Amino acid sequence: MAALQKVRNAGPLVVGALFLGLIGFIATDWTRVVEVFSMSSHNTVGTINGKDIDLQDYNNMVDEYTSVIKASNGLTNLSDEQMQSIRDQVWQNLVETELIANEANELGLTVTDKELQQILIKGEHPMLQQTMFTNQQGKFDYTLLKQTMDQCKEIMNTPESSADLIEQAQSLTQWWSFMEKNLRNTILAQKYQSLLAACIISNPVAAQQNFDARTNEKTLLMAALPYSSIMDSEIEVTDKDLKAKYQEYKNQFEVLVETRDIKYIDIAVKASKEDEAELNAQMNDYAQQLKDGAAPAKIIREARSLVAYSTLPVSKNALPTDIANQVDTMKAGQQVGPYYNSADNTMNIVRLISAQTLPDSIQYRIIGIPAMDMTLAEKSADSIMNAIKAGTPFDTIAKKYNQSGEKVWMASAQYEGMTIDETNKKFIQAISTATAGSLQKVVLDGQSVVVLNVLETRNPIKKFDVAVVKTAVEFSKQTYDKAFSNFSSFLAGKDAEAIDTLAAKSGYRILERDNLSSAEHTIGGVSNTRDALRWIFNEDTKVGDVSPLYECGNNDYLMCVVLTGITPKGYLSWKQEDVKRYLTDEVIKDKKAKLLQDKLAAAKSVAEAAKLSGAVSDTLSNVTFAYPVFVRMVGQMEPVLSGISSADEKGTFKTAVRGNGAVYAYEVLAADKQDTKFDEKAESDMLTQNYLRYINGFQNDLYRKANVEDRRYIFY
Predict the structure, then answer these.
(1) Which of 663, 647, 675, 573 is nearest to 615 (CA)?
(2) Residue 365 located in a structural domain
(3) What's 554's DSSP letter?
């Protein structure tokens, strides 16, 4: 089905549209977006607004989205990383949908079938423009959608339909069902967002104020006493000071989820010198066999090379970077290696068999002649070629054989790096080596003949027939067993304190990770650490406990974890190290500001202030209320100067003004206005965009209210 092919061709656009317009709920600063609670059900992956999310239901959603991704991109398999990304996207989408749905239900907001139908017919929603159902003008075509869906339904309800055709129809139907559900959710979210935005509307007065804030400029002569002019050690900070500051900033230290602190040892198992020596011997043998004329395909297969051998010449783009750099400087018959490439930890041999200049893009058309009798088929091909040479249009003859004879472009990227059978290799070879305007007969597989007409060739590039033996430097089973045994022996019978004390002496490095959330999927960037994460977040794991030894990564890592801290949901203690450090910095800044304000208060002019010990001075131009001014001499953005000076007239002097990085005295040298005309609509639109940012804050409040619990780490 052509429609399905359009899905595949539009893959990146389709995938990018799947969650278009859905609102992100972002937790910042001290927060995490996922909280872990103890739940009774073993089949519950989480809870949203008190609603349990069943494991099977969640898996069904994941499967649905996975099918869409595969169909959209023409894929059959996805990597573990891709699957984890899909699970995360599905969960995020589920959370967002549930939060909006709950609020929408209370407000009476819905998206009716009739409303959705009208949106489809109108065809202007951004999500629709990213689908395959667009006309030549790039606009969504509802008629095309309906025709395609009707066609799919007919195929699936017709017993005579082929299995492949039914599968394609099912895939396309599933894809549109997914898109339609996301469209409905997106429209509902947009309704909710618009309702909130309507609560904060701009007006002419606000528009004028916004304009003035951007266009009224001041020039300031300032003198500053930077906080850095006083040593931190000169400031006394008491617990009373810290407690008072903590109450002032307490909301910043709210933790929405439980996090955990760990220490861990991870060991990357690497090839031993003995392993490397054995591989070197093998590679030298392969190199010698290639020099002696052995078949490249045979050697590459025996070596289990990471780069397959292609009898078709390939461009540099089809080769790994290090190999491409080699062949570009080599001559035909030349061989390089074995050599080690540290970038991908491989040993390499490169033998350039030949190089030739071939077109990268070719336009052609064909007429295929299937045959039980190859002699008759070749005679038919000869007759066709004679008729074409005599002036009969190509497409006229093609139609007699129930073929379109349409013109097709083939680019190197369409086949390079893919597994290609001998028939297709022969066909591609014929196309690649033909000259523009040529007409030829190509006998393919003993069962078919093709009349090939190459119309145009473009972008001639250098292509290579190259044999590459690229083999990873891997450890042996003996090496892995030795690393496992040594690490096991070290851990045996040791508590957290002993591990901490003896690790370095035994050649192991202890790493630390604070504020680890169950939403994370790896520890220290090592893949396949799910078992370790389950142990870390298990309710029975206590601070000071030592985990079992885990085999992680691609069976090339060993790991042991010690739980060092648990930060429960709620407010962080003022005594916590990072909180205390933050509070201390703020108290020191407060006390420095008071001392410097007292010092600067007596100054009657900027000139007098500039003479004080430690003072710096400068002229600040184009200072507006809308944008914080950057004070170069202090190295800080100072919104207080922008704000206070906006109401001052020329000649105004102020002193002892506290900023982010200093205490200031300033005089307004000039008060000017930019030569810009007031545009009420433009200013109102700008304000509206600013108001929408406030809405994100409301949405974060929705998340807090929803008490979202995520326990997916147990299952994945």
Answers:
(1) 663
(2) yes
(3) T
Where does a domain end: 472, 489, 512? 472
**Residue 30 in contact with residue 259, Cβ under 8 Å?**
no
Residues 434 and 462 in one domain: yes
Asked if 222 and 666 touch (Cβ cutoff 8 Å), the reply is yes
CA distance 626 to 629: 9
Report how far apart, in Å, the C-alpha atoms of 33 and of each of 233, 404, 528, 565, 576 are.
38, 55, 22, 19, 21
Contact predicate 395/451, CB 8 Å: no
Residue 648 belongs to some domain of the structure: yes
Long-range pairs for 494-503: beta carbons < 8 A, 24 or more residues apart: 494/546, 495/544, 495/546, 496/263, 496/544, 496/545, 496/546, 496/562, 496/564, 499/265, 499/546, 499/560, 499/562, 500/263, 500/562, 503/265
pLDDT, tens digit (0-9, with 9 covering 90-100), for 457-508 = 888 888 888 999 999 999 999 999 999 999 999 999 999 999 999 999 999 9
**Which amino acid is present at 183?**
L
Q: Answer yes or no: are the C-beta atoms of 606 and 207 closer than 8 Å.
A: no
Number of folded domains in the chain?
A: 5
Query: Which residue from 659, 614, 655, 586 is spatially nearest to 235, judged by alpha carbons?
Result: 586
Q: How far is it, in rounded angstroms, from Cα 264 to Cα 147? A: 59
Residue 16 has pLDDT above 60, yes or no: no
The answer to whether residue 700 sits within a structural domain is yes
CA dihedral 657, 662, 667, 668 (to 10 degrees): -90
Beta bridge partners of 443: 449
For 418, the token pair is 């893919």
* 42 — pLDDT class (breaks 50, 70, 90): low
Same domain, 229 and 190: no
> Do 323 and 468 share a domain, yes or no?
yes
Which helix (H) or strand (E) segment holds residue 515: the answer is: strand 511-516
175 with 217, same domain: the answer is no
Q: Can you give 150-203 as a three-state secondary structure string?
A: HHHHHHHCCCCCCHHHHHHHHHHHHHHHHHHHHHHHHHHHHHHHHHHHHCCCCC
Residue 458 backbone dihedrals phi, psi, to 5 degrees: -135, 160
Among 170, 198, 226, identify where a domain stops: 198
ω into 296 cis (within 30 of 0): no
Residues 161 and 305 in one domain: no
* pLDDT, average across residues 650-662: 94
Specify burial of residue 715 (Cβ count, 10 A radius: 0-12, 13-18, 19+). Answer: middle
Average model confidence (pLDDT) across the chain: 84
183 in a structural domain: yes
Whole-prediction pTM? 0.59
Chain-centroid distance, C-alpha 93: 16
* 19 contacts 85 by C-beta, under 8 angstroms: no
Q: Could you give the maximum distance between any two Cα atoms of the chain, in Å?
A: 110
Residues 528 and 428 in one domain: no
Please choose, from the candidates 574, 556, 577, 553, the residue with its C-alpha nearest in 3D space to the C-alpha of residue 565. 577
Among 683, 632, 626, residue whose Cα is nearest residue 661? 632
CB 36 within 8 A of CB 711: yes
Taking alpha carbons only, the member of 468, 465, 470, 469 closest to residue 314 is 465
Q: What is the DSSP letter of 573?
A: P
DSSP result, 635-646:
TEEEHHHHHHHT
Q: Which of 505, 529, 506 is nearest to 518 (CA)?
A: 529
Between 680-706 and 163-198, two packed helices, what is the crossing angle to 10 degrees?
A: 110
Beginning with the edge strand found earlier in the chain, give each strand of the sheet holding 216-226 in spatial order: 616-623, 216-226, 662-673, 653-658
Residue 699 domain boundaries: 204-211+678-706
